[in-house]
Structure formats: C-alpha cells, structure tokens
Amino acid sequence: MSKYMIDKFMRAVEMSDADVARYVADPAAFVDAWLAGAGGPHRPTDDRSLTEAERAAFATIDHEALYALGAHPYLLWHFIEAAHTHEFGDGFGWRDLVERYRADVAPHGHVDYIP
Amino acid sequence: MAKLVLAAATPHNPLLWRAMRDPMPDDLAGVAGNFARIRDAIRDLGVDVLVVVGTDHIRQFFFDHAPAFVVGKAAHYHGTYENEVRTFGMEYVELTGHPDLAERIAGRELLPEAIDFAVSHEWRLDHGFVIPLQYLRPELDLPIVPIHTNATLPPLPSPRRFAVLGEHLRETIAGWESDARVALITSGHMATDVGGPRQFAGSPDPAFDAEAVAWMRDGDLEGAIAGCRFDRVMAAGNVTYQYVNVITALAAMGGRPADLAEATESRFASSPFFMWRDPA
C-alpha cells in the first residue's frame, strides 16, 4: 500500500504546474498539506498516507531514497524532472540532472516497484 | 466491407518534439524519414480511419483503475496533459473519434471470446497517442479509435493476448459493413529505460532491439510471442514492454513479413519503424 501512496503523491504533483510550483517553494509544507487533504468518510476513495521515511524523502526531494523505497521509476523521473526544472541554467541543465539521477539510483539496481 | 489497408508501428518519444525540427539534425534524419514514409503511405492509400494501439503512461489509467485493454468509444478526445506541455513542449490537440467502429471492436453486449475490453467515453490521450498522430497525420483530420494496452503496470497481459487483439482487429474490420479504408497504428519503442539506472544512455539492450526487428522483418509471430516473455522484456529496460504493441500489428497483418522493419539510430535509444501495406 505504501508504494501506491508514493506513486499517488508523485502523479498528483507532477500533473499540475501549480502544484509543482507550490511543492518546490516549500516541499515539507506541501507534503503535510497534501496528507491533510485525505478523504475521510465522505470521500471514501481519496485516502492519503505516507510513512515517516516516505514523508521525509518527499520533504527533501530525495530521489535516491524514493527510488530505494519503490517509487515507480517512470513516475519518479518525471516527478524529479519537474521538481528541478527551475534550477536549470548555464551551470546546471537537463543532462546534468540525468547524470546525477542515474548515478544516485544505480547502486540500488532494479528495485521492486510493484505496489 | 471495410478494408485494413496498412499496419504500422512507430516510436512516440516526446523528446523528438523539441529536437526534430528544420534544419533537421543529421542524426534525426532517419527518424524523420521513416515517419514520412508511413505518413505518405497513409495518404496514398486513402485511409479513412485510424485505429491506434498505444499505452497510456500512468496518466488516464493509474493504479486505482488499470484495465488490460481499453477501447475508446468517445466521439471526441482531448490530447496531452499539462505536464507534457511543460516537460516536452507539446501542444494540446483535439481529435475526432469513431464510436461506430469502436463499438464493433469492443462488442456491444458480450465481450469477444478471447480478449476482455474495458471501454472509455472520456479519455485524454497522452504522448503515446498524440506524438505518432502528429507525425503521421499532422492535419489530425482522420477519426480515430484509440486502444490502450496496459504495458506498464503489472500484472500485464501476456504477449499472446496482444496477438489476439491484432487478430480480433483484423476480423472486426473485415466484417464491418462499410467501405472505409482502415489503418492500424501501434505506438511503442525498442529497449528503453526511464527512471532507472540505464536511462538516456543509448539502447540499454541492443541485442533485444536486433531480435525485435528480426521478428517483424521475418514475419515470425511465434518467435515474437516467445521472445517477449515478461522477464526478458523487462531485462531490456523498465518500460520496454510497450514494444509488445507491435505484435498486435504483426498479428493483424496475418503474421507476414513487414515491408519496413528498422530500429532507427539517433541520439536517442533506437526507434522502431515497422510497416505492412496491404498487398492488394
């Protein structure tokens, strides 16, 4: 169930320009606000929960930790790409992010990402 | 009766959308040329309807609802999402559906014997559908029947079921009392890793790519089905399973050798281009 919530959070953020901007501005506050928006009895299909390790990984945009925790790789890459695009400039660009990401996840090999 | 006049398979790499522009970079000329060959064939054959078999990238169909095969029955479709506009520079598009053919494919009351479909009346198509259409029919004026195949979220349909889908499409089109000329487009890629340790470093498995071309070049349907077992395909890259969509095209054309079968090299991982023209 936990991997499902990791994927659910990433998809929710990455699909919206506005939510990407809010997340990047204050990741920890965004994560807590997202968790607080859980469904409850009147919204039975919008449960939201993260373990403390998952919450911490999102609060610090830690792609290595998220990969190791079983985030779906396709969703994770696009989530991380969205979260770092604002940093692209003369000294750091898309290819640099690709290289950094790849180096960070490689030691973990192929993780089990099936929820 | 309607006629299946062409089947083809193309890549849907959205990174092409920014890179493949005039003046055409040398390394992308082959990719642009193969898109043009299939685009010209669709025009020359007088195609009226496109059936597009592709895989949604966990956008419309997420882990909360992940059906194996979905037939789009809508009259109209919106194309691409906010995140794809942002990340890939894509453009929103509007597409026309073909509910009549979609209903024949999906079945109106009972599912076909050998395959189970879900249907969708409200579907925003992602780059897996939009990119091929924009290169193969830039006018976006032909009605489409989109068919989603779950090639992303295990448990996945087996490769043989993709062949059954192709056979079902061929039979359905042949039995459709219409003078429509139909083309089947499948959308996928060769060995590809996204978000894993081998992403964006060329093909993660050139040996798989070579085999994947040979099955289509030789018309080896059973070889393709056997060679696309889950563990082998996933070892070639974590999203390689979308290659299996090509099996649908091969089966729809009776398992005969493709007229065009190529893994086209470029700065990106190898791009699949397959085409079968009706011999008549």
TrEMBL record, chain A:
Origin superkingdom: Bacteria
Lineage of the organism: Bacteria, Bacillati, Actinomycetota, Actinomycetes, Micrococcales
Protein name, UniProt field: Extradiol ring-cleavage dioxygenase LigAB LigA subunit domain-containing protein
TrEMBL record, chain B:
Source superkingdom: Bacteria
One Pfam family hit: LigB
Residue stretches making up the Extradiol ring-cleavage dioxygenase class III enzyme subunit B domain: 7-273
Protein name: Extradiol ring-cleavage dioxygenase class III enzyme subunit B domain-containing protein
The organism of origin for this protein: Agromyces aurantiacus
Taxonomic placement: Bacteria, Bacillati, Actinomycetota, Actinomycetes, Micrococcales
